Amino acid sequence: MSEKLIRERNKLLLSVILFLILLIVEKTGILPFLPEHSLWYLPLYLIPYFLSGLSVVKECFLGIKNRRPFDEALLMTVATLGAFLSGEFAEAVAVMVFYQMGELFQSYAVGKSRKSIKELMDIVPELAHIEREDGTVDTVDPDEVEVGDMLLVKPGERVPVDGIVRQGESMVNTAALTGESVPREVFPGEKIISGCINGEGMLRVEALKAFEDSTVSKILELVEEASEKKSKAENFITKFARIYTPIVVYSALALAILPSLGLFLGTKIGLVSPEFFAAHPPLTWLYRACTFLVVSCPCALVISVPLSFFGGIGAASREGVLVKGSNYLELVSKLKVVVSDKTGTLTKGNFAVQEIEPWEGISKEDLLRTAAMAENGSTHPIGLFILSAYKKWMEDSSKANASPEDVVVESDPMKHSSGKESNSLPFPENTENRSGAGLISIVEGCKILVGKAKLLEEEGISVPQQEKGAATICLVAKDGQYLGRILIADEVKESSKEAVSKMKQQGIENVVMLTGDSTPVAEAVGRELNLDSVYGELLPAQKVEKVEEILSSLTEEGEKRNGYLAFIGDGINDAPVLSRADVGIAMGAMGSDAAIEAADVVIMDDDLSRIPTLIAIGKKTMRIAMQNIVFALTVKFLVLILSAVGLANMWAAVFGDVGVTVICIINAMRLIQNPKSI
């Protein structure tokens, strides 16, 4: 609790104590020296009244001065002054004290809901250690770090900018960024994002981005944007309060004046007896009008609904998901279709040699070595994957006599793009690249072909029919003889299948994959993940067209939407689709800056299982918000009617205002206190 809240709490506590003492003294008469006439208690009651409510009275007159009078401060001030005029001093003070008690509780709840998001501000690194070429180390502000600078990250310090580890090994804490409590191991060649806390090892990190472009800065921008984008429910409450408050004030004024005036005129013309008028004097109607004003205060709605969404955004951030606004949280709760890219989203995006399938009479070793000789010195990704697999096989076989069938490569193939890395292989004397088909290399006088079936057939080599599967297939031939094939594939993420299953449990009716990859590969991944629809070989513009087509199927006659669509992507080519979808979800750890900028939701650790959790948070947030709206309006309108006819007093009005507010806030805080219950 902040110092300001502590001061307000102490002042309010003193007001409550004074109020209770005066109430006991007045009602019991235990101090005989005090006069019995209630007017003597007025100056005494004004002490706790102004002690607790002076700020409200000031705010009321300030609003009148600035020509913006219709707010909660006006309602409370007019209602309590009216109660004083009616001689109900204790009730006037009770209204102000309990109103301020509700405001204090509200401030505490809002502060608590902001805490999880404010904690993100703590991820900002305070300094950076730059190692200069002469060996000296300068400690500077992270803003001064330039791309290419070599940084020293000491144990316990935050990584200042996104970079790649060049020396040292350590465990880094990424909890504030990804929601993952288990530290992640980093080693040379591993990328590391800003805001992580280094463990016990010293790291030398090469800066890949400036501070303003790093993960920390992007997160802070997203958090700032989130508070500016309101949901439909929040916008409804804001507009409702703006119209509702003046109506209530004028209705209370009418309740205070019109019945008294009508009864008075009725007595003059003989329609109302003087006794009836005496039983319902003007002060009675003034008291009812004040009660009407107290219960009509809209703070239960104005506070609890935004608090529900703020709590939802905070709960999502603790799960490693950043939502850019409560409007997107509302849309997430109504999703019917989830469309996803493949590479880097449903799959790891780490292509590698998965299978080596030699033809009859050919060993796996000969097949892999022949392909590697043809690709030696190549910069094509397929060539790099083959060279990487061959180098790993060499290392493994030198240690434990491993065979190529054990090869599964996860390291960066760019490491093996130079001849030095593959110096056990001869270089081709000549290489011819056939666009879209493969390459032909002459190595030690032998003609080696590596590529698609089309290339081999053009050279008069027959290719046996084999199952395609979910992989890029490289066929290999040497001197007119078919040797076999090498399968290069992307690995499906471990979390993808479970995430798809849980999305369907959350009410997602259709999970679709759009990819630029070949249709057979796309269909194989779709079968593995149990997707509803799969579309392959799509260009970025075609992905947008496909999303438009799906969106049109969600629109009924009269443009009424039957559910919403989310798109999950990570690459620059996904940015147009992310912008077009109702909710764009970007993979933050591996995603491109363009994708993260275009998206409405960012998953910080690329774990797809966060999406079903986000949908659950969105649905629970909407349930809580609607519960608060229905409960608050029902109780308030009931007490408003009862107060207008004289069946509800000021104490009932206090419950209708402060009591309802506190109950709604407690309900909204369920998301903040126990997000795991989602």
UniProtKB/TrEMBL annotation:
Which residues are in the P-type ATPase A domain? 126-224
User: What's its catalytic activity?
Assistant: Cd(2+)(in) + ATP + H2O = Cd(2+)(out) + ADP + phosphate + H(+)
Q: Which UniProt keywords apply?
A: ATP-binding, Cadmium, Cell membrane, Membrane, Metal-binding, Nucleotide-binding, Translocase, Transmembrane, Transmembrane helix
Q: Where in the cell is it found?
A: Cell membrane
Q: Where are the transmembrane segments?
A: 12-34, 40-57, 247-265, 285-310, 629-648, 654-672
Q: Give the region (Disordered) as residue ranges.
A: 401-432
Record-linked SUPFAM superfamilies? Calcium ATPase, transduction domain A, Calcium ATPase, transmembrane domain M, HAD-like
Q: Name one GO cellular component term.
A: plasma membrane
Enzyme class, first EC level, given as a word = translocase
**Family assignment?**
Belongs to the cation transport ATPase (P-type) (TC 3.A.3) family. Type IB subfamily.
Q: Which PANTHER family match?
A: CADMIUM/ZINC-TRANSPORTING ATPASE HMA2-RELATED (PTHR48085), CADMIUM_ZINC-TRANSPORTING ATPASE HMA4-RELATED (PTHR48085:SF5)
Q: What is this protein called?
A: Cd(2+)-exporting ATPase
- Species of provenance: Oribacterium sinus
